[in-house]
Fold this sequence. Notes:
Structural class: mainly alpha
Number of strands: 0
Shape: globular
Order of helices and strands: HHHHH
Helix content: over 70%
Largest sheet: none
Radius of gyration: 13 Å
Amino acid sequence: xxxxxxxxxxxxxxxxxxxxxERYTELLKTNGELFRRVPQRYIASFLGISPETLSxxxxxxxxxxxxxxx
Length: 70
């Protein structure tokens, strides 16, 4: 459908215009429930990064969010 085409084009564009950390935070905002149901290695693959890199990004984001709340 047209919506699926738009979604896939947005995903491709995000790989060109966003950093891995920005893709992670966007996915977290739009589909946060995935992080409770899907293994980290699959999320990393979807984001185009290694599971180790995803772990480092998650740690940075948690630290950054903690500083904002303080």
